[in-house]
């Protein structure tokens, strides 16, 4: 079975994949997989950008979003004309010759990956560039990815990487075939300093413990900063210790990426 693998750590937000998708499908018909994509109004693959945190600690995150080629395609279940088809390699497409234009599949897709082409009277979506795969080539979005952030191939070839990968909205039970690695989730950061000397404190030990969960620790850097990444929402206990200073602790309810500001330590 074919899968897409997206690595957030490799993506620099260049949007090459998004442009490549348009380049391959706008004005081009690839029967039986797709009729031409409109120049505007649709992005079968789009790069989502999210900024989180607060100044001076802000992170920009990019995520490639396309049809998930789900094992259980909810949009296909809503189709009354059997226009959806699944290939033996797992790629899902809408046959434009069979689509009646009822558009029931458009709102049914939980990933918002199916689009209505009102002018042509059909629904459309990413095909995984099935016409290129038939020729032994890569989907155009993958081929033009400059950083290796988006890849495509047989699931068994990615077995080691898929072990710690995630899928979007896995709670739906749709079995997505697009896997995500190194998603940043949320972060929690701050700065530790000595107000008496008016200097930052390097090497302070900062411990973060999730309530009922695991504990992580790190030391402040040359700027007195600490930053815990890839956190899930929840309740945490933050503790800071440094030789010659009184320890401090704070309970934190994390709902979004948060910069806690500075922590002035009192001399022991």
From TrEMBL:
Keywords: 4Fe-4S, Iron, Iron-sulfur, Metal-binding
Segments forming domain 4Fe-4S ferredoxin-type: 2-31, 90-119
A Pfam cross-reference name: Fer4_11
Protein name: Carboxypeptidase regulatory-like domain-containing protein
Source species taxonomy: Bacteria, Bacillati, Actinomycetota, Coriobacteriia, Eggerthellales
